[in-house]
Every structure is written in C-alpha cells, then in structure tokens.
Amino acid sequence: MSLLSEIKNRFTSVLADYADDVEPLLAMLKPSQDEKFGDYQLNCAMPIGKKSKRPPREVAGEIVAKVDLDGLCEKVEIAGPGFINLTLDKNFVTSQVKSALADERLGVTPCPNPQTVIIDFSSPNVAKPMHVGHIRSTVIGDSLAKIMRFLGHNVITDNHLGDWGTQFGMIIYGYKNFANAEKYEAAPVLELSTIYRYVRRLMDYFEKKASQPRLEAELLTLKEKVAELESAEHENEKAAKKAAKNLKSLKNKIASVEGATASLADYFVTTANDSDFSNDLEKHKDIAQAVLLETAKLHEGDAENVALWNEFMPHCQDEIQRVYARLDIEFDHTFGESHYHSMLGDVVEDFKTKGIAEESEGALCVFLDGFEAPMIIQKRDGAFLYSTTDLATIKFRMDKWKPDAVLYVVDHRQSDHFDKLFAAARKWGYSGPDFFHCSFGTVMGEDGKPYKTRSGDTIGLEGLLNRAVEEAHTLVNEVNEKRPEAERLTSDECKDVANVIGLGGLKYADLSQHRSSDYVFSYEKMLALKGDTAPYVQYSYARVYGIFRKGDFEPNTQDVSATKLMLENPAERSLAIKLLRFEEALSDILTEYKPNLLTGYLFELSQLFASFFEQCPVLKAETEELKQSRFLLCDLTARVIKQGLSLLGIQVRQKM
Ligand code: ARG
Predict the structure, then answer these.
(1) Mutation to probe ligand 1, out of 166, 168, 410, 416 (largest number of atoms < 8 A from CB)
(2) How far apart are the CA of 336 and the centre of ligand 1, in A?
(3) What is the CA(197)–ligand 1 centre distance, in A?
(4) Which of 150, 361, 457, 514 is most buried, by CB atoms within 10 Å?
C-alpha cells in the first residue's frame, strides 16, 4: 500500500471539478518537510486559485469541505496562502503497520500493470581485467533489476559483453608476437591483459608520433597569428582592447601546445632509452594496420583466429565470473557482441532497402534529425561497428521478448551513441518501447581525477573488492575487541561480517550517489559507521537483533493481530509512518531509475530508528504491553531494512 496513492485516491474526484487533467494537481501532494505541517501537504490550491482568479485559501477551504478523508486523516489544516496539511489517522497507521507485519511483502503491493523490461548492464569488454569503471554499471543495473522485479515487473537482464571488438585483434596480434607461454599457462587472463597493454603501448607510440607534426604545424600557425596581431595598428581603443584579448588567448594556446610538445618530447626520450621497446617498435611499424587485419580475419571466420578466440573466451569468462560471484550478481542472459555477428549483414541490408541508410564518403550512414553527424553502420572497408551490433541487438531483443522498455546502464561518455541509436531504432520502426540510457558519472580518486593507481593503470576490480573487505576486517576486529568477552564474535564470524560490510559498503557508496554525478572513491567514507553508509544501516538491523536477543524475543512467532500497537510517542509514530513509506520510496525510483532514492530512504529510516531507540526504551518499557508493541516496530524496521538492502544487493547479519 502506498500512503501517497491512498490520499491521492480520495482527492481525485474532488480535483476533477477544477481541471480536466487532475494528474498535475495530484502530483502536488508531497510528504511534509516538517512534522508541524502534518504528514503530507497538498499545494494545488495556489495554481487553481491563480487560474480561476480566486483567493487560494478560499479554494483550499472548498476542497477540504468536499474531500472525504474519513478513516485516513485525523486532521486537515489550511495554512499560509492555501497549503492543505494532512495528518494521518492514528488508527489507520496502526492498522497499516499491522498488515505490513503480517505480509511477506511488507505491505508493498505489486504494480497493477507489469511491464517487460530489459536491463543491459555490466557489459564489460572482456580480455582485460574488470576495473573500477565497471562497478557502477554492475551495481546500478543489478539493483534496478531487483527493485523492478520486487515491484512485479517482468525483468530480463542481459550482459552485453564486449567479446568481439578490436581488443581481440590486439590480443590475437599480441599473442602471436609477444606471448610468454609459461606465464600464459599459469595465469591466462593476466598474460592476455599484459599482452593487451603492450600492444596498446606500441600503438600509442605510433599515434603520438603521428600527432607530432600536427602539433608543430599548429604551433607555427599560432605564432604567425601572434606576429600578425602584434604588428597590426588599431583604429581605436576598443579594437586595441579586443586585439589584446585575442593575443592573450592565443598566447595561452601556444603555452598549452608547447606543453604538449614538450611532454611528447620527454616521452620519446624515455622510450628511446628502453631498448627492448625500441626494437619492438622497429619490428612492428605497421601494428595498427596489422591489428585491424587480425580483427577482420576473426570476423571473416579465419580458422586460426577463430580457434584463438575460442581458446581465450573461457578464460575471460572465468575471470569476470569470479567477480560476479563475489558481488553476488547473476544475469538471465549473456548475449555478447559475438552473438550478433552473423546478423549484421542483414541489418545493414534492411537499412538500405528501407532507404534509411545512405552512402557518404564510402561509408554507410543513417542521417538523423537533430544530429550533426550521422550514425555510421558500415565502414568504407566493409567493417561493421559498435552501433551496427547495437541495432542488431535491438531487433533480436524485440523479436524475442517484445519489451516495453529497454534500459542501458552505461557511462555518460556514451550518451551520444545512445541518443543516435534510439533515434535510428525509431526510424527503423521500433517506436514502441521506451529506450532509456541510464547513464552515470565517473568514479574519481581523492585527487579529483578518475580513480587510478600510482602507476597510472586503472585499478582492477578484484583488488578493489579485496581492499574493501580487508579494511572492513580491521574495523570489525577493532569493534569486536572492545566488547565484553561473552558477546564477542568468533574469528570466522568476523571474517564473514567483514565481507558483508566491505562489499556492502562498496556497493552502497556507489548506489547512494545521484547516478549522473561523479563521486570520490574513499574506503574510509564507505565504511564509516556513522552517516549515509551501508555499515550504518546494517548496524541498525543488528541493533534490532541485539534487542531481540536480550529480550528473548522471537520474531515471527507472536500473534500480531492480538498485540496492541501503541504509537503515543512521536518517535514511534514517525518511525511507523516511515515504514509505511517503503512502497512510495520504491515506486519513486522508477521515475528516473535512481537507486539513491532507496539508500536515502533506508538511511532516513535508520536515523528515525536511532531516535526511537533513544527515546523509547524497549526492554525497559513501562508495561509489558508497550514492550510487545515496540518489539513489533523493531521487527518491521529490521525486515524493511533487510528487504531494502537486499534490493540493493547488500546483505545483513544479526550479529556484527
Ligand atoms: N562493452 C561496452 C563498453 O565497455 C558497453 C556495452 C553497453 N551495452 C550496449 N548495448 N552497448 O563500453
């Protein structure tokens, strides 16, 4: 049950007297910011008054006189210019809390019109170890899938692995030329990634070499412009000022190009001193071409390259699977890019026959309204692209699952790709489903740059998980040692709790960010016991179980309907109402696919639980009746926390 919808239902017919479309008016019903304004506030009297040229307070009075809030609200007040403040009826609240307690779904009703939703997430390019950049897509996608499933939608998760791109050309080329058989035998993916990086390094060298003359030419042009400006005579003061401004900006540009030239020169000196690398540069002058050729050969079915691909893939799969297992992430499907290879020709043909792709400078392009550059679906040399595969994927998914919505949980740098992809798909005839790029920001280091190790390599995801668990372990041990002996956790329990807190902390830190912002990665912050963190919420759960243990209370055993629920203390009442808002929090997430609304809810719930805990003694409650009532509130709190965290892929423990 959603409190918000219950109240809205009562107002719907009344507001129909004031507008044809009542939705925008109903949308003005919000939880109150402050308890003194009741539990909910409806602000629609102001716009209605403005439109009908009537005093809003008068409109508010009229609405209040008409609406029937019997059994739902015990107090309705008109405040200020015409705010309608609503206070929920105590009996209604108690009865709803009781039904939530008796309900496995904690009072959350499945949505009446379930949608079929595909979530494309994680989708790493394999053959390189997963890095910090993959954490966001993986945890955001997984939590959205869990939340939507819980709300009753038909969710299909698909890991669109990058298992067919140029990186395989690089690895195949590298394997043929640089592989160390022994190392490959011992740790295949590690060796493959070393090979990948080495090939990347060689290719970078040639790219840098090619950029040198461009930089020099640019410098020359800039200097000529400066000389021209400096010798020019100016008609008046205004022109002189403008010229001085131009001159300044040109000089800044020169400084930055000179900086780039200098660091390039440094780079060439360093590489020249590396004789092995220099030798390889000499031997692999055409590496960029060669890599493309290896990729093309793989795509054309060359026996040797296909055999290598088949050999590498299981190792790559094992590697990512290890990370998924630790993070407790599963997919319904893993149709990687390679799955679509045989369909790409037909997709391109279809675009041609339907007249929505045209040739431009030898490449096959889809021109789209509102975009300067077209979407290329086939290169001049016949090669297909990332976008061609994504189009084939859309067709495949539409044929197979007929989704109402498709979410792509991919970082914000690909937004142009997805904007074009969705436009092209609509042009192609897929106008039905709601395609949504669920984009997210970058994980930053404390230095304000994308998170990297000191050597400059992005951090492997496994290393990151290990470190989070290690740091959590230290913390758990510290807390544990301070406990009286009888209450201490065993060393196995400490390990288990460290795992739950470490991985939970990492996921929560990511999910609690507004997904489009960048955020700073900090172990200290993610594991803090106070504040908006997993450990804080997880500890609230454990605290409830601490109370249960001390009070010999066995949840799920008492007769809820026979127990009286008392909400006299304001802290009890606020906690109860927050618990009833669980469904509201979950439904809100789906409007913009923002899991941080759930972490926010759980954090606030934990804070309210903390004030309840401070103000309302449970074990020492004045009467046995009150104690039982408080046990029930504790129980529902623990269950909502457990369910809520599990929708974020985070576990809890009764003892921490
Ligand atoms: N493999 C891609 C990358 O790492 C992400 C794929 C996202 N999904 C998609 N359907 N394009 O950048």
Answers:
(1) 410
(2) 10
(3) 20
(4) 150
- The pLDDT of residue 109 is 96
- Provide residues with CB under 6 Å of ligand 1: 120, 123-125, 160, 162, 390, 393, 408, 410
Pocket test for ligand 1, best of 122, 128, 414 (most atoms within 8 A of CB): 414
Main-chain phi, psi angles of 188, to 5 degrees: -55, -45
The domain spans of the chain are: 3-88, 168-300, 461-647
pLDDT at 229: 87
Q: Which of 95, 90, 100, 102 is nearest to 560 (CA)?
A: 102
pLDDT band, residue 456 (cuts 50/70/90)? low
Q: What pTM does this model have?
A: 0.90
| Residue 100 CB coordination number (10 Å) | 22
Tally the residues of the chain: 656
Q: Which atom of ligand 1 is nearest to the CA of 410?
A: 7
Angle at 381 between CA 378 and CA 384, to 5 degrees: 30
CA 137–ligand 1 middle distance (angstroms):
10
pLDDT at 235: 85
- The CATH code of the domain at 3-88 is 3.30.1360.70
Assigned architecture for domain 461-647: Orthogonal Bundle (1.10)
State pLDDT tens for residues 170-201: 999 999 999 999 999 998 888 998 899 899 99
Report the separation in Å between the CA atom of 408 and the middle of ligand 1, taken as the mean of its atom positions.
8
Residue 54 in contact with residue 82, Cβ under 8 Å? no
How is 281-350 classified by DSSP, letter by letter?
HHHTTTHHHHHHHHHHHHHHT-HHHHHHHHHHHHHHHHHHHHHHHHHT---SB---GGGGGGGHHHHHHH
Rounded Cα–Cα distance for residues 537 and 529 (Å):
9
Tokens of 2: 């959603």
What angle is formed at CA 137 by the lines to CA 134 and CA 143, rounded to 5 degrees?
Answer: 130
- Residue 633 contacts residue 575 (beta carbons within 8 Å): yes
Q: Which two structure tokens, joined as six digits, stand for 488? A: 């201490």
